[in-house]
Amino acid sequence: MTAKISYDDVEVGTELPAQTFPVNRATLVRYAGASGDFNPIHWNEKFAKEVGLPDVIAHGMFTMAEAIRVVTDWAGDPGAVAEYGVRFTKPVIVPNDDQGALIEVSAKVAAKLDDDARTVRVDLTAMSAGQKVLGMSRAVVRLA
Amino acid sequence: MALDQSFVGRTYPPTDPYEVGREKIREFAEAIGDPNPAYTDTDAAKALGHPDVIAPPTFVFAITFKAAGLVIEDPQLGLDYSRVVHGDQKFAYTRPVRSGDRLAVTSTIEAIKTMAGNDIIDIRGEVHDETGAHVVTAFTKLVARRTEEA
After folding, report:
1. Which PANTHER family match (chain B) (predicted)?
2. What are the angstrom distances between the C-alpha of B58 and each of A44, A62, A83, A119, B90?
3. Which residues in chain A are contacts of B91 at CB distance < 8 A?
4. Treating both helix axes as pointing N-terminal to C-terminal, what angle do A25-35 and A60-67 enclose, rounded to 10 degrees?
5. Which of A105, B48, B102, B130 is deepest in the core (most CB within 10 A)?
6. Residue B83 pLDDT more than 90?
7. Reported pTM
8. Residue A83 pairs with which residues in a beta bridge?
């Protein structure tokens, strides 16, 4: 593992560069194919509404995959991620228009866990349309 | 209907190995729009100390969730999958998944709870490579929503 961020250079409260990830219907179809998750709530508006959703929603695992990019881009080496967990609190609703939806992700160092292992805990916040879409979103990262 | 608590601790047999291909990793990285070269460029991955291209952190879910099908579709457990939503997901890595890995998953039911009529089941998927070494553990919480009363 070769993280480009040094453990000694971060403090509790250090903010990671925030990022915004766009998602539209084509994104979801592509993710369905790559992940093998073909649940129709992620591409079929009629089906989604029949099961009580307001519209097609993004795969929770897609949102989870986007959010950690804030950490992997910061750390440099995706292999620096030692743990990563989320709670799926609200769906990302993806309308069938040119814009789709946005997933806005911010993150900060919440704790320095182990001076020898050089691990930190990063807490993430993921928002879409003003709603928090992930809860308890945390990663443990091994820094250089 | 509450699920049978006696299933807590039950471990299912390991799955047949899933072989991780570099083009599958590329396809997944493109699907999440992530241009990190560690996912597609062997030299870039090696420069970071990995023997080959690695997979994005959540890539392994497709493998562990398929393995969890042994639990979800266990007729004796009787989970109603049509009511299931994904509650929580966590991964604990020993190392990143990489191209060429042959991964087997062993699923265990960690907990079963009933809250407000919803069945909640925690499944742990231990992922090992072809040498038997641990790669990652996936913790998946599924919630089977309460059946609506007429």
Report:
1. HYDROXYACYL-THIOESTER DEHYDRATASE TYPE 2, MITOCHONDRIAL, HYDROXYACYL-THIOESTER DEHYDRATASE TYPE 2, MITOCHONDRIAL-RELATED
2. 24, 9, 11, 20, 9
3. 83-85
4. 90
5. A105
6. no
7. 0.96
8. A140, B92
User: Per-residue pLDDT tens for B85-128?
Assistant: 999 999 999 999 999 999 999 999 999 999 988 999 999 999 99
Question: Which residues on chain B are in Cβ contact (under 8 Å) with A60?
Answer: 86, 89
Rg (CA), chain A: 17
In a domain, B120, yes or no: yes
Chain A residues in contact with B62 by the CB 8 A cut-off are: 35-37
Residue range(s) defining the domain that contains residue B39: 8-144
The complex's ipTM works out to 0.97
Q: What is the mean pLDDT of residues B4-28?
A: 97
Q: Residue B42 is encoded by which pair of tokens?
A: 């062997």
Q: Spell out which residues of chain B touch residue A84, defining contact as CB-CB under 8 Å.
A: 57-58, 90-91
Number of domains in chain B: 1
> Which residues of chain A are within 8 Å of residue B90 when distances are taken between CB atoms?
83-86
B150 falls within a domain:
no
- How confident is the model at residue B1, as a pLDDT? 61
Domain presence at residue B3: no
Q: Which of residues 20-79 of A touch B (CB under 8 A)?
A: 21, 27, 30-31, 33-37, 60-62, 64-66, 68-69, 72-73, 76-79
- Looking at domain A7-22+59-142, which of 3.30.70.790, 3.40.50.10490, 3.40.50.1240, 3.10.129.10 is its CATH number? 3.10.129.10
Q: How many Å lie between the alpha carbon of A80 and the closest alpha carbon of chain B?
A: 9
- Reply yes or no on whether the pLDDT at A1 is more than 70: no
CATH number at B134 reads 3.10.129.10
Q: CA-nearest residue of chain B to A3?
A: B48
What was the pLDDT predicted at A9?
96
Over residues A28-63, the pLDDT tens digits come to 999 999 999 999 999 999 999 998 999 999 999 999
- Give the span between the Cα atoms of A49 and A14, in whole angstroms: 41
Name the residue among B54, B85, B87 with its Cβ closest to that of A78: B54
For residue B128, tell me if it sits in a domain.
yes
* Contact between B28 and A60 using a beta-carbon 8 Å cutoff: no
| B104/chain A closest Cα distance in angstroms | 18
Strand, coil or helix: A2: coil
Q: Which of A27, A61, A136 sits opposite B61 (nearest CB)?
A: A61
